[in-house]
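Exercise 4. Each item below gives a protein and its sequence. For each, produce the structure-token representation.

Item: SDR family NAD(P)-dependent oxidoreductase (Hymenobacter bucti).
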Amino acid sequence: MADQQQYALITGATSGIGRELAKLFAQDHYNLILVARNSDELGQTAAELQQYGVQVQTIAKDLFEPQAPFEVYEEVKALGIQIDALVNDAGQGQYGAFTTTDIHRELDIIQLNIGAYVTFTKLYLQEMVARQSGKILQVSSLGAEIPGPLQAVYHGTKAFVTSFTEAVREETKDSGVTITILEPGVTDTDFFNKADMERAKIVAEGSKADPAEVAKDGYEALLAGKDKVVSGFMNKVQAVIGNLLPDNVVAAQMHKQAAPVDGDERSQ
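Answer:
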């Protein structure tokens, strides 16, 4: 159980896995700073979480903007709040053949999925290492382990998150700070709607994990100071198979799974 003064900062906190993680922190009496784009959704989420008897601050920022994480950091500092747990969760994807997708949307996704993670991790890790305590949860993806045709940029960003985190963890392993990677598979969130991916076979016809279960796996791994958790038994199996088979074979399998039910691979 957390001390009353402990704070967790969570990005992407108004929906999906981020929102479920926020609930778990609140239940353990962490005060919260929630970061997301939509101030109305932030307000609704904050009201729900305040019922656990914790303080909830909200910061509405568009993390597509490179300056946004720095602005969040400065606002938190101005409040005199120390962040004990950082959760990098905000992320988006774009479905479709790479030659047909919108490069500007993809550059936004790279900023959100990589730029914001790197910036928040650096700013808060420096503080945590200095005081020799703190926890960071990086929400990556099973996609980090396998190539993702029709989601080439998204899988690439998640491969970056996992590789980057593993390197930084090694650098700071004697610092008293723990950094945990959560790799979910297909989860029942708004991600696929935002990515225009609901017509992909794996989404339209496959099973989706409950975001509350995924969040629980990540939260428990974070508290235990574990290095990495792949959420869900079948996803664990897929990660192992993905690491055993040649990349071109895995890519071909993933291409079949991600193929659109209507047969049109172009971005809509």
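Check: The two ends are 47 Å apart (CA to CA).
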